[in-house]
Amino acid sequence: MVVAKSGAGKTRMIKRALSRHPALQPDAEHLRPWIMARVPSPATTKGLGIAILEATAYPDLGRNRVEREIWGIVRHRLAELGTIVLWIDDPRRGKPDQPVPVTRALRDGRG
Protein backbone atom coordinates (compact mmCIF):
# COMPACT_ATOMS: atom_id res chain seq x y z
CA MET A 1 0.00 0.00 0.00
CA VAL A 2 1.31 3.42 -0.96
CA VAL A 3 0.00 6.25 1.17
CA ALA A 4 0.72 9.96 0.77
CA LYS A 5 -1.13 13.24 0.45
CA SER A 6 -3.13 13.99 -2.66
CA GLY A 7 -0.91 15.28 -5.46
CA ALA A 8 2.26 13.73 -4.03
CA GLY A 9 2.84 11.64 -7.17
CA LYS A 10 1.78 8.19 -5.96
CA THR A 11 0.05 7.23 -9.20
CA ARG A 12 2.92 8.44 -11.38
CA MET A 13 5.48 6.65 -9.20
CA ILE A 14 3.66 3.30 -9.31
CA LYS A 15 2.92 3.51 -13.04
CA ARG A 16 6.55 4.31 -13.78
CA ALA A 17 7.84 1.43 -11.61
CA LEU A 18 5.45 -1.11 -13.13
CA SER A 19 6.07 -0.04 -16.72
CA ARG A 20 9.86 -0.27 -16.25
CA HIS A 21 10.08 -3.53 -14.30
CA PRO A 22 11.62 -6.21 -16.55
CA ALA A 23 9.39 -9.01 -15.25
CA LEU A 24 6.25 -6.98 -15.98
CA GLN A 25 6.76 -6.42 -19.70
CA PRO A 26 4.24 -7.96 -22.13
CA ASP A 27 5.28 -11.19 -23.83
CA ALA A 28 3.60 -14.23 -25.40
CA GLU A 29 2.44 -15.59 -22.03
CA HIS A 30 1.70 -12.30 -20.26
CA LEU A 31 -0.18 -10.06 -22.67
CA ARG A 32 -1.06 -7.59 -19.89
CA PRO A 33 1.17 -8.43 -16.93
CA TRP A 34 -0.14 -5.47 -14.95
CA ILE A 35 -3.40 -3.58 -15.05
CA MET A 36 -4.45 -0.39 -13.32
CA ALA A 37 -8.09 0.23 -12.46
CA ARG A 38 -9.56 3.17 -10.61
CA VAL A 39 -12.23 2.66 -8.00
CA PRO A 40 -15.40 4.31 -9.27
CA SER A 41 -17.60 6.65 -7.31
CA PRO A 42 -19.67 5.53 -5.57
CA ALA A 43 -17.30 2.76 -4.55
CA THR A 44 -19.02 -0.62 -4.84
CA THR A 45 -17.59 -4.07 -5.45
CA LYS A 46 -19.74 -4.42 -8.59
CA GLY A 47 -18.48 -1.06 -9.85
CA LEU A 48 -14.87 -2.05 -9.17
CA GLY A 49 -15.33 -5.29 -11.10
CA ILE A 50 -16.72 -3.31 -14.04
CA ALA A 51 -13.81 -0.84 -13.81
CA ILE A 52 -11.30 -3.69 -13.90
CA LEU A 53 -12.97 -5.24 -16.95
CA GLU A 54 -13.03 -1.86 -18.68
CA ALA A 55 -9.31 -1.45 -17.92
CA THR A 56 -8.69 -4.76 -19.72
CA ALA A 57 -10.72 -3.61 -22.75
CA TYR A 58 -13.18 -6.44 -22.15
CA PRO A 59 -15.71 -6.44 -25.00
CA ASP A 60 -19.48 -6.41 -24.55
CA LEU A 61 -19.64 -6.02 -20.79
CA GLY A 62 -23.30 -5.12 -20.44
CA ARG A 63 -24.45 -3.37 -17.26
CA ASN A 64 -27.17 -5.89 -16.38
CA ARG A 65 -24.81 -8.53 -15.03
CA VAL A 66 -24.87 -9.39 -11.34
CA GLU A 67 -21.86 -8.86 -9.09
CA ARG A 68 -20.97 -12.56 -8.78
CA GLU A 69 -20.96 -12.94 -12.57
CA ILE A 70 -18.82 -9.84 -13.04
CA TRP A 71 -16.18 -11.09 -10.60
CA GLY A 72 -16.14 -14.50 -12.30
CA ILE A 73 -15.43 -12.72 -15.58
CA VAL A 74 -12.72 -10.60 -13.88
CA ARG A 75 -10.91 -13.70 -12.63
CA HIS A 76 -11.12 -15.36 -16.05
CA ARG A 77 -10.05 -12.20 -17.90
CA LEU A 78 -6.99 -11.60 -15.70
CA ALA A 79 -5.91 -15.22 -16.18
CA GLU A 80 -6.53 -14.96 -19.93
CA LEU A 81 -4.30 -11.88 -20.16
CA GLY A 82 -1.59 -13.33 -17.92
CA THR A 83 -2.05 -10.52 -15.42
CA ILE A 84 0.09 -10.93 -12.33
CA VAL A 85 -0.33 -7.44 -10.84
CA LEU A 86 -3.70 -5.75 -10.40
CA TRP A 87 -3.19 -2.17 -9.26
CA ILE A 88 -6.30 -0.58 -7.77
CA ASP A 89 -5.84 3.18 -7.64
CA ASP A 90 -7.48 5.19 -4.85
CA PRO A 91 -9.38 2.40 -3.12
CA ARG A 92 -9.98 4.55 -0.05
CA ARG A 93 -11.93 7.74 -0.28
CA GLY A 94 -12.81 9.51 2.90
CA LYS A 95 -11.26 9.07 6.31
CA PRO A 96 -8.11 6.89 6.32
CA ASP A 97 -9.30 4.91 9.35
CA GLN A 98 -12.68 4.12 7.76
CA PRO A 99 -12.23 1.94 4.66
CA VAL A 100 -14.97 2.08 2.04
CA PRO A 101 -16.99 -1.10 1.34
CA VAL A 102 -14.74 -2.03 -1.61
CA THR A 103 -11.63 -1.97 0.54
CA ARG A 104 -13.34 -4.10 3.20
CA ALA A 105 -14.55 -6.61 0.59
CA LEU A 106 -11.09 -6.97 -0.94
CA ARG A 107 -9.48 -7.27 2.48
CA ASP A 108 -11.99 -9.95 3.49
CA GLY A 109 -11.60 -11.88 0.22
CA ARG A 110 -15.11 -11.24 -1.05
CA GLY A 111 -14.05 -9.59 -4.33
UniProtKB/TrEMBL annotation:
InterPro entries assigned: TniB
UniProt-listed Pfam families: TniB
UniProt-annotated stretches for the region Disordered: 1-21, 92-111
Protein name in UniProt: TniB family NTP-binding protein
Organism: Thetidibacter halocola
Taxonomic lineage of the native organism: Bacteria, Pseudomonadati, Pseudomonadota, Alphaproteobacteria, Rhodobacterales
